[in-house]
Design goal:
The complex is a heterodimer of chains A (184) and B (204). Chain A is α+β, with helices and mostly antiparallel strands. Chain A is built from 7 helices and 5 strands, in the order αααααααβββββ. In chain A, 53% of the residues lie in helices and 12% in strands. In chain A, strand 3 (161-164) and strand 4 (169-174) form a beta hairpin. Chain B has 204 residues and is mainly alpha-helical. The chains are: A alpha+beta (184), B mainly alpha (204).
Chain lengths: 184, 204
């Protein structure tokens, strides 16, 4: 049996869906002022809607006859339960703090972690190490360029500083009769 | 102190703020649970469960737009669980009228306890999905939108259920109005406010 068939169609048989909905919205204080006048016009002629309104208003009056207070004794029970809950959550927290390291859950096991570390160590032992070089010397070598120039092209400012005709001054060490190492 | 400030203080570790929230809402939650379950002891248990859940889930409090909606959502879920456990579903059955008090007395002559008994049994006769919307609307004064949030349904579904529950109320109360209308003139004089249409809207 459907729910609709169980419910009275008290006002639906005579009233339009709109007026029916307007009535309920009015009872809930959700009907606009503009729509109220058309509802009242309808209610002036409709006994069913008037009875429906009376029923809801009577229900409201009757429901206010009942005073439902939360019993004070229930407060004590609640605070006892709350204290128990707090105690339980404290215990859970402390237990997790106290859990020994070897029992802690890990994403990988201790054995596989140790095996992995040993493999990495052994690979490290067999990897050939590069020849020891002086890092500073290597840097300087990168900047050293061997050039050749005619002595007539340059003017010697000091023993190791030369001035070229195109306006470039270089610091260089003479290595041979016609060769120099220039450092830029 | 506003809800937001209380919740913020509670989340910051202020236990008194939680007590403030509890004191502010325990009555409303209890009333809702009592009407849903129609059992005082069960309602007390479910009310306590609701607040204990709030205490446990304090981190989620500010993520929700309306605290009241969230609170009633928890209470409603607890009530439905409790109803499922006790298998006390009562619906729109054929024997509805027999489960309600006999309407031999006009509304105006009903004693206070008769009125309370009548609405309690009427609510009890509704299925939980109709019962919850009626209680949230009539007792807790929640808007359609808030009820939809609590019951996890659409506003149109809320309206539909609420209106159906009211139509059922109208049908159940129909004999009352018939009895009211056949009062003698002397009775009507004694109870001028009891006549049908006493609260009728003015015709204009």
């Amino acid at each position: 049996m459907t729910e609709n068939s169980n419910i009275s169609n008290l006002d639906e048989s005579h009233c339009s869906k709109n007026s029916n909905e307007f009535l309920h919205q009015y009872l809930d204080g959700e009907l606009s002022f503009h729509a109220q006048s058309s509802l009242f016009e309808h209610m002036a002629e409709c006994e069913n809607c008037r009875r429906m309104m009376e029923s809801v208003l009577a229900f409201r009056r009757m429901s206010r006859q009942e005073f439902l207070a939360y019993p004070p004794a229930a407060d004590d029970v609640f605070f006892e339960r709350l204290a128990k809950l707090k105690k339980q959550s404290d215990q859970v927290d402390r237990e997790s703090d106290r859990k020994p390291l070897w029992n802690a859950s890990r994403s990988i096991s201790l054995r596989s972690a140790l095996a992995l570390a040993s493999i990495v160590f052994l690979i490290g032992l067999f990897v050939p190490t590069p020849a020891r070089t002086d890092y500073a010397t290597a840097l300087i070598q990168l900047e050293v360029e061997r050039v050749q120039f005619e002595p007539s092209d340059s003017i010697v400012i000091e023993s190791h500083i030369y001035h070229w005709v195109d306006g470039i001054t270089v610091e260089a060490v003479r290595t041979g009769s016609q060769e120099s190492e220039e450092t830029f | 102190m506003k809800d937001y400030a209380l919740i913020e203080a509670f989340q910051a570790g202020d236990e008194f703020a939680f007590v403030g929230i509890y004191n502010r809402y325990k009555g409303a939650v209890y009333a809702f649970c009592f009407k849903m379950l129609v059992d005082s002891e069960q309602a007390q248990d479910v009310t306590q469960d609701t607040f204990l859940r709030i205490y446990e889930n304090r981190d989620r409090l500010l993520k929700t737009s309306s605290f009241k909606s969230w609170l009633f959502t928890i209470a409603r879920n607890q009530c439905l669980n409790s109803l499922r456990r006790s298998k006390r579903h009562t619906g729109f059955d054929a024997g509805l009228e027999s489960s309600l008090p006999a309407l031999e007395t006009p509304y105006s002559k009903m004693e206070r306890n008769e009125q309370v008994q009548f609405i309690t049994r009427f609510i009890q006769s509704l299925k939980p999905e109709y019962r919850e919307v009626l209680i949230l609307r009539e007792y807790q004064n929640l808007t359609y939108e808030e009820i939809a949030a609590v019951t996890r349904s659409s506003i149109s579904a809320v309206k539909s259920r609420l209106f159906k529950a009211r139509r059922k109320l109208g049908k159940v109360m129909e004999p009352m109005w018939t009895l009211e209308s056949v009062q003698t003139p002397q009775e009507a004089k004694k109870n001028p406010g009891s006549k049908v249409g006493a609260h009728r809207q003015p015709r204009d």
